[in-house]
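User: Show me sequence and structure for the first protein, then do the same for the second.

Assistant: Starting with the first protein.
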Amino acid sequence: MSGEKTEKPTAKKLREARKEGRVARTNDLSTWLGVLAASFVIPLTASRATDKIRQLSIDSLAEISDPQPADAARLLRTGLGDIASLVGPLSLSIIAVAVMSTASQGGLPIATKKLKPDFKHLNPIGGLKRMFGPQGAWEATKSLLKVTILALVVWHAAQGIKPLLGHGNVLPLSGVLRIVASTALTAMREAALAGLVLAGADFAIVKKRIDKGLRMSKQDIKDEHKQADGDPQMKGKIKQRQMEMSRNRMMAEVQSADVVIVNPTHVAVALRYDPAKGAPRVVAKGKGVVAAKIRALAEEHRVPMVQDVPLARALHKAVDIGGEVPPELYNAVARVLAFIMSLKARGSAAGVHRVPVVAARR
């Protein structure tokens, strides 16, 4: 059936979904990648921090023995700079990992539509459906899996350092601390790797759900194409309206024409001649009903009409509205205009006329 949503979304549908923020992504990916990155950056930061703390302690003891305001200010600046140099790389690495992980899940779209208030989000029924539906069930399962993963990793790490905490331990405290730190880092990496696997599963489920929600019916696709191309009926009405407006403008030009050349009933071409603008121009033309309308307007506004079958046909075929008379028709048009001018000089230009043969020969 055409109403079943079995078709893949179109490019336009995907763009709209992107604006709405409906893109497959999981926050767990950036979280676990951040934990994994931190497990490698923290040892480097800790090593540098040990050296800087040692040097800062030495400088502080020296300052206490002989306190000077300038030296104290310098020591404060040095301490703040050391803190920034230690925290900066760790923070930047975590931010970089978060940005890259987000970009890898469909880029960094700006969901502009989410900035607008939507009262549908306040609908309690929709919230209950999400809570107790398949999405809510998966979220609960995912939380349970996270807790299970962390519990297993912590238990495994504890089993590794348990012998070191017994009475039979002969290692010095520094050695125990190094082993505990190494075990903690290993636990972080194991948890991060397990979490990445879970994030991959979460991404696949979210993508499947969103893809299903974006599917379209065949009728949806047809409607979208119709909207993109324009409704044929509406386009036809617009075109008809444009033609009517153009025809009305053309008819308005008839009353200011110098002459209308007719054929005698099928074709009508209105000419206007302004010596300052060059050759005579066709200001209106038409066949059939349009020609009859031009003749009626010419009669109403006392514009002279001349019956000349070959010239009327030639002008209608060769010249567009607003165009100049071509050179090959100059002589014929000039004879007609000269004849009309002579009629106007005698005060009898209105009506339908024929160019006398004698006048044509002249």
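Switching to the second protein now.
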Amino acid sequence: MDYVMVDTQDDFPHQSDPLRRARLRWRARRGLLENDLIFDRFFSRYEHELSDADVAALTRLLELSDNELMDLLLARTEPEGDLATPDVIRLLGVLRSV
């Protein structure tokens, strides 16, 4: 079963709604500078190309603490358990490459 984020406020996909993009960017602001730098580069390159699956995977990652997220972004750890979905792993690879 595919995990898809559903927004009941409107029917616009993430890429076509500037308000949704701004909210996601704001949510990605973190307490650790290293995380902020990675997300800033990521959004600069890929913000308009994100699919609903990408947004759902990013949302899952943003639920982590700053230190857990940094460890994943810097490949100190790998996603485990229900976080280790194909979409999260793929998005994490993109985040690590920016």
